[in-house]
Every structure is written in C-alpha cells, then in structure tokens.
Amino acid sequence: MKICCIGAGYVGGPTMAMIAKKCHDIEVAVVDLNEERIAAWNSPNLPIYEPGLQEIVEERRDKNLFFSTEVKKYIKDADVIFISVGTPTKSYGIGAGQAAELGYVEGCARMIAEVCDGPKIVIEKSTVPVRTAEVIQNVFDGYEKGDLFEILSNPEFLAEGTAISDLENPDRVLIGGDSTTEAGKKALETVVGIYNNWVPRENIITTNVWSSELSKLVANAFLAQRVSSINAISAVCEASGADVDEVANAIGKDSRIGPKFLKSSVGFGGSCFQKDILNLVYLCEHFGLADVAEYWRQVIKINEYQRKRFTRKVIHSLYNTLQGKRIAVLGFAFKKDTDDTRESAAIYICRDLIEEGADIVVYDPQVDAEEIKGLTSEKVEVASSAAEAVAGAHAVLVLTEWDEFKDLDYSALYESMVKPAHIFDGRNILDLAELEKIGFNAFGIGKA
Length: 448
Ligand code: UDX
Ligand code: ADP
Prior knowledge:
By secondary structure, the chain is α/β, with parallel strands linked by helices. The protein folds into two domains: 2-207, Rossmann fold (3-Layer(aba) Sandwich), CATH 3.40.50.720; 208-448, NAD(P)-binding Rossmann-like Domain (Rossmann fold). 44% of the residues lie in helices and 13% in strands. It is built from 17 helices and 14 strands. The protein has helices at residues 12-22, 35-41, 53-60, 71-77, 103-115, 132-142, 163-168, 182-195, 209-240, 244-252, 273-286, 290-317, 345-355, 369-375, 386-390, 410-415, 432-438, and strands at residues 2-6, 27-31, 65-68, 80-83, 120-124, 149-153, 173-176, 204-207, 326-330, 359-363, 381-382, 395-398, 422-425, 441-443. A six-stranded parallel sheet has the order 3-2-1-4-5-6, sandwiched between helices. The N and C termini lie far apart (59 Å). 45% of the residues are buried. It binds uridine-5'-diphosphate-xylopyranose and adenosine-5'-diphosphate. Residues 6-12, 31-34, 37, 71, 84-86, 104, 107-108, 126, 271 line the site of adenosine-5'-diphosphate (ADP). Residues 328-432 form the UDP-glucose/GDP-mannose dehydrogenase C-terminal domain. Pfam families: UDPG_MGDP_dh, UDPG_MGDP_dh_C, UDPG_MGDP_dh_N. Its EC number is 1.1.1.22. Belongs to the UDP-glucose/GDP-mannose dehydrogenase family.
C-alpha cells in the first residue's frame, strides 16, 4: 500500500512518521509545496520540535518514509491520500474571524481530481468545519470523477509536545465514512486496517463522516471549556482567599469530573482550541442556534479575560507604570515541549505590556528569536538564557511551564534584579512561599 499525505506540518509530519514506524510494508510519502520545509524534514534539523520525533524520522526516512515537493507524482501513485493542510480562521470576507479558510483543502481536492485517474481513498486529517467532505465531493463531481474517490474523515487528537505518545497509544482513533455503500465500507476497513497495526480494534471508532468531523470540534471545545472554567474560578479564588490548585484537586477527585485539564493558567493557546470553537460558533449561527453559539463564545471570552486580568495584575503591582521598566518573560511557546507559538498567551501579554511602555526581554528554550520579534516588536530583546533575561529586570513573568523554569536558581536571579523584585507565575509551577522567603513579591494565578 502507498500513502501520500499532503501537508508536512505539526499534524502530517508526526502522524505519517508513526504510520511508517508501525507499518514497514506501507510506503509513506509526505508532500508539501513549501521547499524549505521539505528540505528541513530531509535534514538533521527537522522543521518542528516534538520530543521523540527525530528518532523515528531518522529510523524510517528513505526506507518507507519520504518527504518530497513532488506533490502530483506522489498523489498519483498513492492508494490512500491524507489531506493535512492548514485551515486557519478566515481573516477577510464572509465569516471573517470565525469560519475556517478552506482554500488549501479545496486546492488539494482540485489537484487530486486533476492528476488521479484510478480509485483512491481521500481522508481529511486537517481540522475542518462540519460538512467539508461535501465540499471535497463537490469538487470531485465537478471534474466528473466523483465515483473514483471515497472520502473519509479521520481527525487528529494528538497534542503538541506529547504527539508521539499520543499517536502510539491513542485513547481512540476516529474514522468517519459511508458504511451504507460497499465502496464506503471497504474504504473504512482499509483505514481501520492501517491503524489496527498497532491500535487495538476496540479503540478504533467508526462513525458517519459528519459525526467524525463534529466530534473533533466538540472534543476541543470541551477541553477548552474546562480550562476556561478553572480560569474563571481562579478570579474568584484571588478575590476570596481560596487557592485554585486546592480547588482543582478537590473537584478533580470526583470521578465524574476527573483530574486532567484543570490547571489554571494565563489562558489556553495553540492552533486548535480557539479556531475550533470559532468554527463551532459559526456552525451554530449558520443553523440559527444563537443561544448555543453564545454559550461556546463565552469560553473564548473568558480566555481573553484571563490574559487581560494577568496583564492588569502585572501593571497594578508595578505601581501602575511600566515606562522604562525591564520585564523578563520566561517562555513564549503556547505550552511546554513545543516550539509552536500559535495563539500563545505570551504574544498578547507582551503586546499589551509594550503598549504600557515596558522594555520586554524574552527567553524561550525552543522558539526562534526572529519569530518572537515578528509576533511582538522589533524592539523586544531575545535572551539566550533565563539568567540573561532576568538580569537587571524589575519583574519576571513565567508564561510557559517549561520544566527548566522549575529548577532555576531563583536566589541568584533575585540578586541580579532591580528591587523590589516581582515575579508572576502564570502557570503555577513555582513555590510562591519559597520565592517570598527569598525576597520576591510573588504572584500566582488564583492565589490570594
Ligand atoms: C489540543 C488537543 O488537546 C488535541 O487533542 C487536539 O488534537 C489539538 O488541540 P494542543 O493544542 O496541542 O492540543 O495542546 P493542549 O495540551 O490541549 O493545550 C492547549 C492549551 O491549553 C495550552 O496553551 C495549554 O497550556 C492550555 N492548558 C491545558 C491549560 O492552560 N490548562 C490545562 O489544564 C490544560
Ligand atoms: P498543521 O498544524 O495543521 O499541521 P501547518 O500549517 O503546520 O498545519 O502545515 C500545513 C502545511 O500544508 C504547510 O506546510 C503548507 O505548506 C502545506 N500546504 C498547504 N496547501 C498545500 C497544497 N495544496 N499542496 C501541498 N502542501 C500544501
């Protein structure tokens, strides 16, 4: 069997590497129009940072895993085609700020229709709005090739930073297809067969295409809702003297609630949560479900509120003026163990602090200096260590929960700072009482 995946990003790259690792008899090609990205996949410096990925790529590359810009050739040769291109939120026109930009997906569908003459299974892997399969089908029909292709949905549930273990031991694999026709049933079986090489059959769920598409949006909406719920409670904790970690621990012991995804923070980021909720909101409005749309919109509003609330706390604690003050930001990625900055809370917080006149210096173990400047301001200084960032600063903000920030020598950092020295732990990974003993004015999220 030959698989071709269009799109060599955070989803396509790791997913295909795992299939290649687990299925040596399948030839897997990952194609992308972006030459630089493909060159990086073929080099010792992969274009994305993901723990454990490098080893797998090095083990399978040029054996049964290939990275190429020859998009058409590999599409033509493949039995199974995954579409794994970006679906950013539209920034213009109808649905701007909410609907997904499907131009890349449509482009792939057109290319498949143009170059393929034999039957193929086409799988949407990108996060797409519900009924995208219909769009793809329409394109195929337009080329009078509608009957050649079976369209399936196989949403990705991997989380960045833990992508490899998520792919290796998924809670479930979801495959949506048309089980009412023989061809549809056969296509479903084929894709189930690929995953069944390492995922137990009972963990592979098959549904109709729309359930599968919607489940992806709903899973992310529920996860984001938990973060916004605990973040909303963090404001109540700060006002009342309760401790948000204690509250999270207490409620998480209820097996109906469960302990995961209850970590209060400066707000969720990443390429999926906000985009998927906006998609859900757009879908609800499309169906005239205004109250349902409003319900989910609140999850995003609380996330924005939380970022603003944090920034206000920083400004207030620094005597309402940041003019000429040096503020060290530790962590810029949207979470630890990734170099991805999409929708990271740090972007918004830095921009607001710059507007207040602060001099920002950022340190992140993985994010590129140019990227940090591009997302904030050319004036932002990028340091090559935490100690370098913090020296001479009035305040330290911990915005990503990188493990190395837990083990810093905070006494030495304190010595190097302007007094009174402030520290704001946006991830609740530090011991505030210890920091106060050192001499810091220490603040956390949801801590009195
Ligand atoms: C998410 C989903 O988890 C994954 O299943 C889906 O396929 C893609 O979207 P990802 O965006 O990579 O994955 O990261 P995730 O671990 O879900 O975290 C998202 C954001 O929420 C991060 O900014 C994280 O720091 C934040 N978060 C998460 C919290 O603030 N508190 C928590 O308790 C959990
Ligand atoms: P994700 O996080 O969903 O994987 P990325 O934006 O990281 O998304 O990756 C999507 C990739 O898809 C990009 O590298 C982009 O160049 C590629 N891409 C978009 N459209 C096409 C296309 N028509 N043919 C090939 N590659 C494409």
